[in-house]
Design goal:
Layout (H helix, E strand, L loop, with lengths): L1 H15 L7 H19 L38 H11 L8 E6 L5 E2 L5 E10 L7 E8 L17 E5 L2 E2 L3 E3 L2 E3 L4 E3 L7 E8 L8 E11 L4 E3 L3 E7 L6 E8 L9 E8 L3 E2 L6 E4 L4 E6 L5 E7 L8 E7 L6 E2 L16 E4 L6 E8 L9 E8 L3 E2 L6 E4 L4 E6 L5 E7 L9 E6 L6 E2 L17 E3 L1
Parallel strand pairs: 1-12, 2-13
Antiparallel strand pairs: 1-3, 3-10, 4-8, 4-9, 4-11, 5-6, 5-10, 7-8, 11-13, 14-15, 15-19, 16-21, 17-20, 18-19, 20-22, 23-24, 24-28, 25-30, 26-29, 27-28, 29-31
Helix pairs in contact: 1-3, 2-3
């Protein structure tokens, strides 16, 4: 390798030396060898000059610089054939067949743009494993946010500009879109993460949240590179408009529910005005809305009541009306997407529980001479308040007990004692008229006839 580099240096010196020195014929032969090797390694095709000169302008070529810095030149410039052999040494051999993944990532959190100054958001480019040749790529940008066309300052109306290692980097329009114009390099033999950032400009303009879409575009030595995550989306939050910080269930505090009225607490990030029922709407019910401010806070309670709520089973959703006119003290209109908790729905459950089956459990058949009888009573949902007082037996003087069956909506009801040991007759299990079984939302069991199997008798 030392001899090759020495020879390359000699060739470079020959290129810049006296054009009338001896050895021109030998130099042309070296060109042919060098260019053949360069074609094999890089895919660039050059033809040697037949004029015999050492550096004909017709044989100059632009090649990506393998060690170009971010923001620096993306090409070596105009090179003549003598220096191309040295360039081949810098590029190394053609990329071997390896399996590497090139990916980009962005911060998970979103950032407020602020009212002034700037803030930097970092993107990370990583390579899964080292390669023996440099990897070239660039960034391309899209999204609703506006990028700056100026290198060291924000152009009019721009939301961000690209920076790298603390230095501003230009973005130019290319066939791929708005892209960093030069190649960025991951050097051979490394997998170190490379970080680049966008610098976000703070302002006081009321505007929607905006997105920055960053796409990773490999450019050179990409034949053995697999793209992992090649596109990330970052959202710049506009903090110049009043915002909804949360919508929470207030009364009742949980869902599902069978309540006849529903109250949400809507909290804003600053004092707002013009808040009334006309600023909200509900879907899934015919209920009406009422709004009341919560003293000493930036919150309002929005209550739905009446209509079909008392018998409704379904989802009720609170949202802002399209023509809402809520604004802050400066007259800036509200941005309605909550930045925090959004419990804007209640699931209404006014459906009564049902008995799905009553089956003989122990013994499992009838007639029987057993001294105790067990029925399994199964419901279609979880129920509560189930005990022996909810059941009765006829045809015997036996006593009842009831026990839940773990992990199910079933209960085992057992009759024992009394005259069962000497009984001949039919024993029947039923619900008492005053049973108080209900589901978790307070819907009472009103129909006790099973929807399925009903083996509520034993012949003893």
């Amino acid at each position: 390798m030392g001899k090759k580099r020495a020879r390359s240096r000699a060739l470079l010196q020959a290129e810049t030396g006296d054009a009338n020195q001896e050895g021109g014929g030998h130099f042309w032969l070296i060109q042919v060898v060098a260019m053949t090797a360069i074609k094999a390694a890089s895919g660039f095709l050059l033809e040697p000059s037949t004029s015999g000169d050492r550096c004909s302008s017709s044989r100059r070529v632009l090649l990506p610089h393998p060690r170009a810095a971010v923001g620096g030149p993306s090409v070596l410039g105009s090179l003549c054939c003598a220096s191309l052999f040295g360039l081949l040494l810098a590029f190394g051999p053609a990329p071997e067949a390896q399996a590497q993944t090139l990916s980009i990532s962005a911060p998970a959190e979103r950032a407020n743009e602020g009212n002034s100054g700037t803030r930097d958001v970092t993107f990370t480019v990583s390579l899964s494993s080292a390669v023996s040749y440099p990897i070239f790529y660039r960034f391309c940008f899209s999204g609703t946010a506006t990028w700056s066309s100026n290198l060291t300052s924000f152009s009019t109306g721009a939301d961000y500009r690209l920076i790298g290692n603390g230095n501003d980097i230009s973005i130019s329009t290319t066939t791929n879109g708005n892209c960093h114009p030069g190649n960025i390099i991951i050097s051979s033999g490394t997998t170190s993460d490379q970080t680049y950032a966008i610098r976000i400009k703070g302002d006081t303009a009321a505007e929607p949240d905006e997105t920055v879409i960053v796409t990773l575009v490999p450019t050179v030595n990409t034949s053995s590179i697999t793209l992992g995550t090649s596109t990330v989306i970052y959202t710049i939050l506009d903090d110049d408009r009043p915002r909804v910080t949360s919508i929470t269930r207030q009364t009742p505090p949980s869902s599902p529910t069978a309540a006849d009225s529903l109250t949400w607490r809507v909290t804003f990030d600053e004092a707002v005005q013009n808040v009334d029922a006309a600023d909200f709407q509900i879907a899934g019910t015919t209920a009406s809305l009422a709004v009341a401010g919560v003293d000493g806070t930036n919150a309002y309670d929005v209550t739905a009541s009446g209509g079909d709520l008392a018998s409704l089973s379904g989802t009720v959703t609170l949202s802002f009306a399209d023509d809402q006119n809520i604004q802050d003290s400066n007259g800036v209109t509200l941005y309605t997407n909550p930045t925090g908790t959004n419990e804007n729905t209640f699931v209404m459950d006014n459906t009564a529980p049902r008995v799905t089956s009553i089956t003989r459990q122990t013994p499992s058949s009838s007639p029987t001479a057993a001294d105790s009888l067990t029925w399994r009573v199964t419901f279609d949902e979880a129920v509560q308040n189930v005990d022996l007082a909810d059941f009765q037996v006829s045809g015997t003087t036996a006593s009842l007990t009831a026990a839940g069956v773990d992990g199910t909506n079933a209960y085992d009801v057992t009759a024992s004692g009394g005259d069962l040991a000497g009984l001949n007759g039919t024993v029947t299990l039923s619900f008492v008229n005053g049973q108080n079984i209900e589901d978790s939302n307070g819907n009472a069991l009103t129909t006790t006839t099973p929807t399925g199997t009903n083996q509520n008798t034993f012949v003893v």
